[in-house]
Design brief:
Keywords: Cell inner membrane, Cell membrane, Membrane, Methylation, Transmembrane, Transmembrane helix. This is Type II secretion system protein H. It is found in: Cell inner membrane. The chain folds into two domains: 31 residues; 118 residues, minor pseudopilin epsh domain (minor pseudopilin epsh fold, 3-Layer(bab) Sandwich). The chain is 32% helix and 33% strand. It is of the alpha+beta class. It is elongated, with a radius of gyration of 23 Å.
Length: 158
């Protein structure tokens, strides 16, 4: 090979360097910008509101009674099975169990009578046994009001 052919970089080498620089820059921006304290809570509240809307649609479409139960580090959707009680439901329908990371502290108004029954229940005819679900984390709070008209999110703090 001549000296002229050995000088410079190949296209692959240049692309690898560009990808490395882009990854480093995106990580640096994410680290420097950070997130405001209530941003994660806003995202969780929006995701949960979307899951509640989906549960209402699935209850009507599948003619099933669907409930929502918070768990220690997340939540799950359940369905009433005559003779069997509440059974885990929805993995293939977009209603799979979810985890909060780090965990949030949900509460309910009116307060839940016990932990075995769902906090929210959607009926096949479009009715819902609703409540106000409050999510709290790091001093911030978001409230999801669930009723026959749908889901609304309000919040305060950070």
């Amino acid at each position: 090979m001549s000296a002229r052919a050995t000088r410079g970089f190949s296209l692959i080498e240049l692309l690898v360097v560009i990808v490395i620089i882009a990854l480093g820059a995106s990580l640096a921006v994410a680290w420097l910008v950070g997130t405001r304290p209530g941003e994660r809570l806003d995202r969780e509240a929006r995701d949960l509101a979307g899951a509640f809307r989906l549960a209402a649609d699935v209850a009507r479409a599948r003619q099933r009674v669907i409930g929502w139960q918070p768990q220690g580090d997340g939540y799950r959707f359940v369905s009433w099975q005559p003779g069997h009680g509440w059974q885990v439901f929805g993995e293939r329908l977009g209603l799979a169990a979810q985890r909060w990371d780090p965990p949030l502290q949900p509460s309910r108004q009116p307060p839940a009578a016990d932990t075995t029954t769902p906090w929210l229940v959607w009926l096949p005819d479009g009715e819902v046994v609703g409540a106000h679900i409050q999510l709290a984390s790091d001093g911030a709070r978001r409230t999801l009001a669930v009723d026959a008209l749908g889901v609304s999110v309000t919040g305060r703090g950070r």
